[in-house]
Write a structure and sequence with these properties.
Layout (H helix, E strand, L loop, with lengths): L2 E5 L2 E3 L5 E8 L6 E8 L6 E7 L5 E4 L7 E6 L4 E6 L8 E9 L14 E2 L3 E5 L2
Parallel strand pairs: 2-11
Antiparallel strand pairs: 1-3, 3-8, 4-5, 4-9, 5-6, 7-8, 9-10, 9-11
Amino acid sequence: QVQVVEVGGGSVQPGGSLRLSCVASGIRLDYWAIGWFRRAPEKEREEVSCIVGIDKVTTSYADSVKGRFTISRDTAQNTVYLQMNSLNPEDTGVYYCAARYNPYGSTCPTWYEMDYRGKGTLVTVSS
């Protein structure tokens, strides 16, 4: 059974850091595109970051997080990480990870194209 579970949300002050983990089970991680999405209060869900590719790995970031967030994966742990630095209140929201089988692709699927989605973890950035 395929499952993706987000771990690591919480509360942090502006300027702080958090690391989110997307723990996958039932899949070979490098054959799947893994995306991080977030939904801020009263805003539409947006893609934050994505990682895809077997040997040639492609990553992408929303403009709003470039230079502050880093996505990475550990295939041995079947986990994708989202390291979030220099957090600001606009980063507050529920963060979701999602997966789509994509062994030959290099582009990141949209939320609606994902095959599996987690339940989300709340990140709150506030002083």
